[in-house]
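Sanity check

After download, print the first record. It should look like this:
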Amino acid sequence: MKRKIFTTVALVCCVMVCFAFFADLTGKWTGSLHAPDGNDYPLNYTFKVDGDKLTGSSTGQQGSVDITNGKITGNDFSFNIEVNGVDVKNTCKFYPEADSCGMDIDYQGFKMHATLKRSTDK
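Expected structure tokens:
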């Protein structure tokens, strides 16, 4: 009997941890990208999580663009955004203990890295 109770409690805790992760990624995130041309570009994302699907938008100097092909697997996630007519692949890792995301960005063969932090703006 004790074993069944322990197993049930353990499974409930695992499910709660999974939902806590998804809830933690939802929201506004900001960072800066240092591009190969030497310029720094602000990064502003709003992420929305629904199960293993990621949606949202990116806002920049040229307006807002929707996130496409958003997928989440554990702490790893990926999505695409369109920049100047180019589909840009973003491969990311969420670090819940630091409340940050590491991003690897592939823009027409140029590989770049950026770090996002949760925005304090509401």
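If your output differs, re-run the checksum step. Summary of this record's structure: The longest strand covers residues 40-50.
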